[in-house]
Design goal:
The protein has 2 domains: about 1-175, Rossmann fold; about 185-400, TIM Barrel (Alpha-Beta Barrel). It is built from 15 helices and 12 strands. The chain has helices at about 1-10, 10-15, 30-40, 75-85, 85-90, 120-130, 155-175, 195-210, 220-225, 235-240, 260-280, 300-305, 340-350, 375-385, 395-400, and strands at about 20-25, 60-65, 105-110, 135-140, 185-190, 215, 245, 285-290, 310, 330, 355-360, 390-395. It starts with a helix and ends with a helix. The mean pLDDT is about 95. The structure holds zinc ion.
Length: about 400
């Protein structure tokens, strides 16, 4: 409630809408969020600052498989932690279904019938109390799902709760909800010339109408002896180019460029460029630092060879007004290292002008399994980008669109 008062107090400065503040909580957090909506009369503001003058009543509540009641539930750990030795005496008082009043803010509630930890009856009891008082309340009990399904993961049915909650805020709590900014920009890049860039990735991107930059390299001769069959040939890279995708330079042998002399570094770049040229692949304008880290020593060499954009793996969105074009940040996505979470986090930060650049390797990646993303996850990500109206471009397309050259 202190947070709500503070947000209202600083609404202008923080760009918040002081009349449309919703609280959202999951599980025990659902009890906490529910407390905000049912205890705002009872707990006095006592911080002795300017924020005390603002209301601490939330304008709506979103409660996800909440702990609500301490009355009859099988799950009372939350109540015991909260009330400790007063549990028996105060359990009814802190059962939120007993605290609903006519001015309790509208609530959207969802749960799963098979929740093994917090019984769905919690949600039902609260919804009933809300309806009895004539308050706006929407309740969804999904038939199947364990405790903690959060934003739904792969479950298309469960994922819908966020859309439903959004519509509820609009319809039942008068929130001016118009959805996020449309056409936010994402740039897809694919490193290391993996065979399935041609067999899986490029055709799939075509299906979605998405742009992308491919950053092939050739690795060392020793590497090729062992893994050459997984590596795209120049003819195959040409085919990807002919499909309309950008081909960038990732250096010939994928060495740590920071450690090379100027001559060695230039040779690395020239060698790959001349292979491209013999295969009639257009001269690249984009470069990706092998392994990811920015290499200051390459600047004059990149410029000399017409490479105007250079991608690192510094995990930020590409701020086109501020970022150095030879030090473009990007988010590497790796399935077993929270890949999907990183994907959503990056999307949450990008805008129409400031793109999130993603780095993929093979789909799937067999030779470098630490960089793996499965085809299933990749398709899921493409679906997500399409459904949410992202503009998906190559680095070059983005640079042309915003006149960066
Ligand atoms: Zn690489």
């Amino acid at each position: 409630m202190r947070a709500i008062r503070l947000i209202r107090c600083h609404a202008e400065e923080w760009g918040a809408d002081p009349e449309h503040i919703a609280v959202c909580g999951f599980s025990a957090g659902g009890h906490l969020a529910g407390c905000c909506g049912t205890l705002f009369h009872d707990l006095d503001a006592k911080d002795n600052d300017e924020a005390d003058h603002f209301s601490q009543r939330p304008d709506a509540m979103i409660l996800s498989y909440p702990v609500i009641t301490f009355r009859k539930t099988q799950y009372i750990a939350t109540g015991k932690r909260l009330l400790k030795e007063d549990f028996d005496e105060k359990r009814d008082e802190w059962s939120l279904e007993n605290r609903v009043l006519a001015d309790t803010p509208p609530a959207y509630i969802w749960a799963t019938a098979t929740d093994q930890l917090v019984p769905y009856e919690n949600s039902v009891l609260f919804a009933q109390a809300m309806w009895e008082k004539g308050n706006k309340c929407e309740l969804h009990i999904f038939p199947d799902g364990p405790h903690g399904m959060a934003t739904g993961y792969e479950r298309r049915d469960l994922k819908l709760w966020m859309e439903q909650a959004k519509e509820f805020l609009k319809a039942s709590a008068s929130f001016p909800v118009e959805g996020g900014e449309k056409g936010r920009t994402v740039i897809l890049t694919f490193d290391d010339a993996v065979k399935n860039h041609l067999s899986i990735v490029a055709p799939l991107l075509k299906e979605y109408g998405f742009g992308a930059t491919f950053f092939p390299c050739c690795f060392t001769e020793e590497w090729r002896k062992e893994n050459g069959r997984h590596l795209l040939t120049m003819e195959e890279i040409k085919q990807i180019s002919d499909m309309g995708f950008e081909i960038g330079n990732h250096s010939f042998a994928h060495k740590n460029m920071q450690l090379l002399s100027a001559e060695e570094a230039e040779e690395e770049i020239e060698k790959l460029n001349s292979l491209f040229s013999s295969a009639h692949i257009p001269p690249p304008v984009s470069f990706a630092y092998p392994g990811g880290p920015y290499a200051e020593n390459l600047r004059p060499i990149l410029k000399k060879h017409g490479l105007k954009l250079a991608r690192t793996t510094e995990k930020r969105v590409w701020n086109i007004a501020e970022d150095d074009f030879l030090r473009i940040p990007a988010f590497p996505l790796v399935e077993h290292l929270n890949g999907k979470l990183n994907f959503y986090e990056a999307l949450g930060k990008c805008t129409k002008e400031n793109a999130a650049v993603f780095v993929f390797h093979g789909i799937p990646e067999i030779v470098h399994p630490h960089c793996n993303v499965t085809e299933k996850t990749f398709r899921y990500m493409l679906d997500y980008l399409e459904e949410n109206d992202y503009t998906v471009l190559s680095m070059k397309e983005y640079a042309l669109k915003y006149n960066l050259f």
